[in-house]
Amino acid sequence: MKKEVWALTLASALAAWPLMGYGGSVQAASMGIIHGNVAHALLDASSEGNPASPSAHVTLYIGFNFQNAPLGSSYPSTVAQFIQDSVTPSSPYFHHFMNASTFAATYAPSSQAVHALLNYLAQYDIQPVTVNGQQIAYPLGINVEGTIGNVERAFQVSINNYLYQGRSYLANNTNPVLPTNYDGYNLAQLVSGIAGMTTYNAISDHMVNQSETPSQSGSTTPQGYSPQQMAQVYNVSPLYKNPHAVTGKGVTIAVATLAPFIPSDAEQFWNYYGINRTGTLSEVGVDGQNVNASGKGIGGSETSLDVERSGAMAPGANIIVYEAPNTTPGFLDLFQAVVSQDTAQVMTCSWGESEFFTPFSYAYMMNQAFMQGAAEGMTMMVASGDYGAYDGYPTDKNLSVDLPASSPDILAVGGTTLPQVSATNPNPTINGGVVVIPGGTIPMNGEQGWGWSYLLPYYENFGVTSEARWKNDIYPIGSGGGSSSLFTPNSPVPTSGLYSWWQTESLNDGNRDVPDVSFNADPFTGYAIYDSNSVYSSPTAPWMNGWGGTSFASPQWAGIVALIDQYTGSPQGLLNYALYANANSGGLRQITQGNNWYYNAGPGWNAVTGLGVPDAKKLADVIDTWQNSG
Q1: Which distant-in-sequence residues (6+ apart) come within 8 Å of 355 by Cβ?
Q2: Where does residue 211 rank: exposed (0-12), middle (13-18), buried (19+ CB within 10 A)?
Q3: Using H for helix, E for strand and C for coil, what is the string for 74-127?
Q4: Residues of the chain with pLDDT under 50
Q5: N or C, which end of the chain has less CB nearby within 10 Å?
């Protein structure tokens, strides 16, 4: 089933938003600053050019702050407190999640306040974006468009041209402002952030190939770990067997992505591996995205692998693929669509960008969607990135982590290297084995944190003739991990989130630290993708071999969480708390070897593999027992 969604609106929250004659006065007694809306790190590394053309058009996503629950509400005053209560077994709110309508009525701003904002913007001919007559609007945000000149006047900013490492983009260098009293509403307090004034976009998938130049001919057969091998290594298989017979039935997984794919490719993947899929597969187009688009590109392979691997791990789960355009507003709308439609209990996403490129407000607005999802009972997870501790590499070579993995209300999934006897071995080992590379094998004493530093002595196998060339071409591939520079005790605006209250083990820096958990991600111990329309394959040779990345880790974790949902009889919501509270209970196997080019794996939580990898059957039992302990 395919459908397109342009505006996932909630009637109770948005009924008063339709276009009409706008009133109100442009003049305001005072203006309030919308803090955190400048990409300072990016601007500091860029050269400034001429002012942007005032007649050019720009699309903005305007986010709305959470409101406290109305007086007399039966819910806690803040969203953050409700989320914490919803995953605390001793709380009366434990696993009593909201639906989207209740969430909007409790914590979203009133339609009257939003309409006052639209009144103000209309004075500058800035109008809501519509697709086929429907506004792209959500309880926590709306898309608007206008000329740069009018945007500059409405928000009292200057938007200029910038150049960063050969890429030109537009950006504002001061925070926008809004009236503190317009039609009786404080618009500055209403708005949580504005995305789209800065047009630099570094959002990409988290896939890595063994080769610097992957084969463009494809293959007729796959190489790499099969779904069944992963189920064996991570002790998922017992869940499939009687008396449990757990398949994810009754659970829906949302695959959030920025590229269309060919659904029949996933079906071919499952058929080849003998996966008895009983769950449904459907697509949703966000912001007018054409789900039938078939342009070649690696993005479609990302979507294919997310669907293939999550669906194989949880063969009974339904899958909805949400597809949005790869733009700054589109990435925000992608997550808003998932939580506003409120159909899934699990979400996986394998796209992101370094925090280096993003202003705080963008990250915060994204996390607002994750908070809504958590309040609705969703377990939302993302890949932590593939550049080790240097997520902005090669454009930025400082320590950095990936967004949205650094969001406090998301489960960040890192990567490991799982050694094997051979790529086709039906019984992959955990405690020993080898990593197969061109020209030989590398002995490895068990699963370790993924970082290609273990390949340094063997770089000549790749035809690289110097260490400098090696580091320029391949360094620093590995599991994304480290400390957030955005979600810290010194975030630029007061926030409503109890950030990382559940993270009892971390770098002890007070920041959000990633990852939380891990899964095999090294392409040298990696996987095949079935994609008949990639630049690396063809309809007659549809298999793409030698792939890895945390893109494979997140969807397989999503499948395991779907199994846990069915096993325990309840969606988990923000699963992070249960994982950290039960880190030493046997459901997670610690990874104590390896590095990601800066941080080392070790006992307990670490910034390479987090709490470790799943022992799925034990983890399901641990969580089931724990959530009944209250």
Answers
A1: 363, 391, 392, 400, 401, 402, 403, 406, 484, 485, 486
A2: exposed
A3: CCCCCHHHHHHHHCCCCCCCCCCCCCHHHHHHHHCCCHHHHHHHHHHHHCCCCE
A4: 1-28, 495-497
A5: N
Q: Is 505 exposed, middle or buried (0-12, 13-18, 19+ CB in 10 A)?
A: middle
Give Cα 316 distance to the centre of its chain.
23
Q: Residue 302: which of 333, 267, 271, 348 has the closest Cα?
A: 348
Residue 581: its pLDDT value, please?
95
Angle at 186 between CA 185 and CA 188, to 5 degrees: 145
Tens digits of residue pLDDT in 581-604: 999 999 999 999 999 999 999 999
Q: Which residue has the tokens 């400082």?
A: 398
Nearest to 386 by CA among 497, 481, 296: 481
Q: Please choose, from the candidates 135, 261, 147, the residue with its C-alpha nearest in 3D space to the C-alpha of residue 537.
A: 261
8-state DSSP, 454: G
Q: What share of the chain is helix, strand, coil (3-state, %, to 5)?
A: 30, 25, 50
Identify which of 57, 396, 380, 369 has the alpha carbon closest to the alpha carbon of residue 202: 396
Burial of residue 12 (number of CB atoms within 10 Å: 0-12, 13-18, 19+): middle
Decide: 332 and 192 in contact? Cβ < 8 Å: no
Instruction: Look up tokens 């803090």; give the residue.
Output: 35
State the sign of the Cα–Cα–Cα–Cα dihedral 523, 529, 534, 540.
positive
- Could you tell me the two tokens for 74? 């039966």
> Can you tell me the distance from the alpha carbon of 595 to that of 598, in angstroms, rounded to the nearest whole number?
7
Q: What is the C-alpha R_g of the chain?
A: 24
Instruction: Report whether the peptide linkage leading into residue 404 is cis, meaning its omega lies within 30 degrees of zero.
Output: yes
Quote the pLDDT of residue 585.
93
Angstrom distance (rounded) from CA 449 to CA 515: 11
| Paired strand residues for 390 | 400
State residue 393's pLDDT score.
86
